[in-house]
């Protein structure tokens, strides 16, 4: 079985001890794609070993710095790699289903005229995606999970787990701004995790679980940065979190050809809605509200980006610990 083969590579590659593998989340491990059997806990560590062996075999060719000094914990690195340390990746995209498993909409477009899009990362992408596709009003056109803001084109799950791609687990959300606001989605993003945890979220540690917002225009940038400052102040006032918000905010255009996001394997797409899915989410919502929109949104953007969801929605359906695990898969009916 693939699990045994990967465990063998862990032992041979020296990237993680058997004790370290055993310490990986005992609740769940993400099933590998395309011909691999579902593993037990420790799949991310196996990915570290596989990718580390690959990186070592290329080191003299690429002339990159050594990676042995990098601290590896719970499946990934706790510091960002340099571009010349990254795995090479591949030119071809991951094959995925044409239609969204829950919404029945296209996974890769074309999108309806007037649709908007951005990419975010706030921990394990299984729960992150489910929280967004459930937003009400028919405004979520499509969601997809993938690997964002890295150096490696079209990485696979094991490579992303290694920390040797620079990627973070992310969600691409396409939405109709006439039905659900950018600020509504952004509020869910902030309140659904603890954005002060740096390289990780809950039990999931490593650069592949870092918090991030990736924008496609200057107005998104303004709103993202203003909301970040507001939420940091709210967390600190409530005595929650670990201090400074560590969420990175980066333009999609900072990446070659604007390619900030690469689709993950098909089994990861809408994972928590699929038969046999293992209910897992390590996000740590702090139960702190994003302050009132008018108090932080730039004045010249307030009319255009006014939220569609009122406070009564957030009181009833706002993110809480384990909320995506306990909630139905279908979009929320509201009001």
TrEMBL record:
Belongs to the MsrA Met sulfoxide reductase family. Keywords: Oxidoreductase. Its EC number is 1.8.4.11. Pfam families: PMSR. One of its GO terms (molecular function) is peptide-methionine (S)-S-oxide reductase activity. This is peptide-methionine (S)-S-oxide reductase. Transmembrane segments: none annotated. It comes from the Eukaryota. One of its GO terms (cellular component) is cytoplasm. It catalyses: [thioredoxin]-disulfide + L-methionine + H2O = L-methionine (S)-S-oxide + [thioredoxin]-dithiol; L-methionyl-[protein] + [thioredoxin]-disulfide + H2O = L-methionyl-(S)-S-oxide-[protein] + [thioredoxin]-dithiol. It comes from Symbiodinium necroappetens. Residues 119-281 form the Peptide methionine sulphoxide reductase MsrA domain. It is an enzyme of class 1 (oxidoreductase). GO terms for biological process: cellular response to oxidative stress. InterPro entries: Met_Sox_Rdtase_MsrA_dom, Met_Sox_Rdtase_MsrA_sf, MsrA_MetSO_reductase.
């Amino acid at each position: 079985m693939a699990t045994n083969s990967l465990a063998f590579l862990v032992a041979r590659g020296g990237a993680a001890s058997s004790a370290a593998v055993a310490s990986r989340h005992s609740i769940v491990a993400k099933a590998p794609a395309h011909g691999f059997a579902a593993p037990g806990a420790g799949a991310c560590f196996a990915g570290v070993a596989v990718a580390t062996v690959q990186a070592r075999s290329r080191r003299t060719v690429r002339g990159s710095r050594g990676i042995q000094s990098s601290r590896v914990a719970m499946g990934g690195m706790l510091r960002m790699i340099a571009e010349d340390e990254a795995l090479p990746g591949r030119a071809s995209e991951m094959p995925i289903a044409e239609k969204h498993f829950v919404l029945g909409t296209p996974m890769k477009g074309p999108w309806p005229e007037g649709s908007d899009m951005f990419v975010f990362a706030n921990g394990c992408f299984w729960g992150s995606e489910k929280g967004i596709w459930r937003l009400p009003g028919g405004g979520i056109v499509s969601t997809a999970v993938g690997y964002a803001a890295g150096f490696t084109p079209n990485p696979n799950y094991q490579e992303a787990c290694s920390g040797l791609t620079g990627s973070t687990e992310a969600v691409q959300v396409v939405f109709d701004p006439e039905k659900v606001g950018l600020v509504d989605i952004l509020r869910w993003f902030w309140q659904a995790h603890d954005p002060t945890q740096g390289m990780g979220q809950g039990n999931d540690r490593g650069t592949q679980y870092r918090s991030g917002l990736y924008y496609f225009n200057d107005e998104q940038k303004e709103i993202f940065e203003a909301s970040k400052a507001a939420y940091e102040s709210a967390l600190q006032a409530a005595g929650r979190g670990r201090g400074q918000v560590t969420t990175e905010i980066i333009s999609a255009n900072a990446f070659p050809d604007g390619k900030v996001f690469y689709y993950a394997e098909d089994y990861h797409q809408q994972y928590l809605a699929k038969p046999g899915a293992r209910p897992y989410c390590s996000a740590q919502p702090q139960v702190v509200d994003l302050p009132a929109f008018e108090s932080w949104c730039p004045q010249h953007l307030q009319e255009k980006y006014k939220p569609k969801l009122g406070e009564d929605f957030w009181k009833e359906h706002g993110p809480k610990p384990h909320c995506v695990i306990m909630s139905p898969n279908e979009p929320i009916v509201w009001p």
